């Protein structure tokens, strides 16, 4: 086994597509599950800020799904985060990285920055291109050739044909791809029975439908085993150059424990609050906290000795009545005198009501669902000192919601971006719509643990 600084010839492959909707999640999740069924230890990763796909990845791989997002954490940390994720709890035999949107689609106004192509370059991994071949024949070869030529630094090592209609259709496509010299590593037929149900913000998270999700992952594994050349995928993954970047280390990132005491930090989980990056827990633990999960749907109280609370994103609107019914926990959070950090769903839960259903009432706001999707990366600056940021501190984050609050921000806003103020700092509460990845600003974890004193 290598140390964290030795070159590591980690086999790895990036699953990409020309655009969203071609089947990246289907293929990536099926590959993870199928390779695991071969007895391999597989490390799952996702380009971008998405929380839901990594849940399916984790179920397929049997270890946490992790995100690789240059915008949120900085390009300089991507290779190290990959190596860290592929190393714990045990070193992986292969890493599978699912892309985001189209291969070359990056942050708006930044060319391909934070795109799948950008990450593939940063981790020096070959790309496995997934093509939705519905109503497409020989043009699939032209599309593939264009994707390969657009950025010579991104190596497309093979194609998986998805949603193939018939054996004749597959033959036509394989012949066309042979003309441009790109190998076909699989041809997946249309299989509606493995489609996961969707919601207004994407797929329904794994935690909300665990038995059905497990059945979907099993079906995806069987589909990939039957239609994809797994040996060829492994051979492609082994062509990746050795990783020479040291593994990211949460202890180094936070500078070690913030004190001798180990305060309990309660992290919201369960079906209503599924949006959390694995590194959040690791950073809090490295800063000296004992991190325990609380499920606001079922747990009547915070864990014993809780000194701080972190409430991330999720779908409280789908569970509003059940959240309202847990009156004892709502009352405890309304009176809790320790620091509370809330993002998006957490913001809604701390308000007075969500779609007229009572919530915690810790913040003087009401929230409601709308028909408008607010989505995108944000470059924010902290407006007010809080348990996770100092006024004037720049932070990068991401918004993704269909709700709105009244008012839109408090007298002491949390952030400012796009010439507007956002979020709430009230006492020791910091709440806003902004999702952040603490690997990009690890001081947040240390500051929160220090605030527990």
UniProtKB/TrEMBL annotation:
CDD domains tied to this protein: CobB_N, GATase1_CobB
Enzyme class: ligase
InterPro entries: CbiA/CobB_synth, Class_I_gatase-like, CobQ/CobB/MinD/ParA_Nub-bd_dom, GATase_3, P-loop_NTPase
Active site: 344 (nucleophile)
Pathway membership: Cofactor biosynthesis; adenosylcobalamin biosynthesis; cob(II)yrinate a,c-diamide from precorrin-2 (aerobic route): step 9/10
E.C. no: 6.3.5.9
Keywords for the protein's UniProt record, in alphabetical order: ATP-binding, Cobalamin biosynthesis, Glutamine amidotransferase, Ligase, Magnesium, Nucleotide-binding
Region (Disordered): 393-413
CobQ/CobB/MinD/ParA nucleotide binding domain mapped to chain residues: 13-201
Signal sequence, start to end: none
UniProt xrefs under Pfam families: CbiA, GATase_3
Site (Increases nucleophilicity of active site Cys): 435
Keyword rRNA processing: no
Catalytic reaction(s) noted: hydrogenobyrinate + 2 L-glutamine + 2 ATP + 2 H2O = hydrogenobyrinate a,c-diamide + 2 L-glutamate + 2 ADP + 2 phosphate + 2 H(+)
Sequence ranges assigned to domain CobB/CobQ-like glutamine amidotransferase in this UniProt record: 265-441
HAMAP family with a match to the protein in the record: CobB_CbiA (MF_00027)
Further details from the record: The a and c carboxylates of hydrogenobyrinate are activated for nucleophilic attack via formation of a phosphorylated intermediate by ATP. CobB catalyzes first the amidation of the c-carboxylate, and then that of the a-carboxylate.
UniProt remark on domains: Comprises of two domains. The C-terminal domain contains the binding site for glutamine and catalyzes the hydrolysis of this substrate to glutamate and ammonia. The N-terminal domain is anticipated to bind ATP and hydrogenobyrinate and catalyzes the ultimate synthesis of the diamide product. The ammonia produced via the glutaminase domain is probably translocated to the adjacent domain via a molecular tunnel, where it reacts with an activated intermediate.
UniProt xrefs under NCBIfam families: cobB, PRK01077.1
Biological function: Catalyzes the ATP-dependent amidation of the two carboxylate groups at positions a and c of hydrogenobyrinate, using either L-glutamine or ammonia as the nitrogen source.
Family: Belongs to the CobB/CbiA family.
Protein name: Hydrogenobyrinate a,c-diamide synthase
Organism of this sequence: Micromonospora zamorensis
Source organism phylogeny: Bacteria, Bacillati, Actinomycetota, Actinomycetes, Micromonosporales
Chain's gene name: cobB
């Amino acid at each position: 086994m290598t140390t964290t600084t030795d070159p590591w010839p980690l086999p790895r492959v990036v699953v990409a597509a020309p655009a969203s909707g071609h089947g990246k999640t289907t293929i990536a999740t099926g590959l993870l599950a199928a390779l695991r069924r071969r007895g391999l230890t597989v490390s799952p990763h996702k380009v971008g800020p998405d929380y839901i796909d990594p849940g399916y990845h984790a179920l397929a791989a049997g270890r946490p799904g992790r995100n690789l997002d240059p915008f949120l954490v900085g390009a300089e940390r991507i290779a190290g985060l990959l190596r860290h994720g592929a190393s714990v709890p045990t070193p992986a035999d292969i890493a599978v990285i699912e892309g985001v949107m189209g291969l070359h689609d990056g942050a708006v106004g930044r060319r391909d920055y934070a795109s799948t192509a950008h990450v593939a370059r940063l981790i020096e991994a070959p790309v496995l291109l997934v093509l939705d071949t519905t109503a497409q024949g020989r043009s699939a070869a032209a599309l593939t050739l264009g994707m390969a030529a657009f950025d010579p630094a991104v190596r497309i090592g093979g194609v998986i044909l998805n949603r193939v209609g018939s054996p004749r259709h597959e033959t036509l496509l394989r012949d066309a791809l042979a003309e441009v010299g790109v190998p076909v590593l699989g041809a997946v037929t249309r299989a509606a029975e493995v489609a996961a149900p969707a919601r207004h913000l994407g797929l329904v998270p794994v935690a909300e439908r665990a038995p059905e999700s497990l059945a979907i992952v099993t079906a995806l594994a069987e589909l990939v085993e039957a239609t994809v050349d797994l040996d060829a995928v492994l051979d492609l993954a082994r062509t990746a150059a050795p990783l020479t970047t040291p593994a990211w280390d949460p202890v180094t990132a936070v500078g070690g424990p913030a004190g001798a005491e180990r305060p309990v930090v309660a992290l919201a989980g369960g079906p209503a609050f599924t949006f959390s990056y694995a590194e959040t827990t690791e950073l809090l633990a490295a800063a000296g906290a004992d991190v325990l999960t609380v499920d606001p749907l079922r747990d009547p109280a915070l864990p014993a000795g809780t000194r701080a609370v972190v409430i991330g994103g999720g779908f409280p609107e789908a569970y509003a009545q059940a959240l309202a019914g847990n009156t004892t926990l709502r009352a405890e959070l309304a009176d809790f005198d320790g620091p509370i950090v809330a993002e998006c769903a957490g913001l809604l839960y701390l308000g007075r009501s969500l779609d007229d259903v009572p919530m915690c009432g810790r913040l003087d706001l009401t929230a409601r669902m709308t028909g408008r999707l607010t989505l995108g990366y944000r470059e924010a600056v902290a407006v007010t000192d809080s348990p996770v940021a100092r006024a004037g501190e720049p932070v990068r984050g991401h918004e993704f919601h269909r709700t709105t609050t009244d008012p839109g921000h408090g007298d002491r806003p949390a952030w400012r971006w796009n010439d507007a103020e956002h979020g709430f700092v009230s006492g020791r509460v910091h709440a806003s719509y902004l999702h952040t990845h603490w690997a990009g600003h690890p001081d947040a974890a240390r500051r929160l643990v220090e605030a527990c004193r």
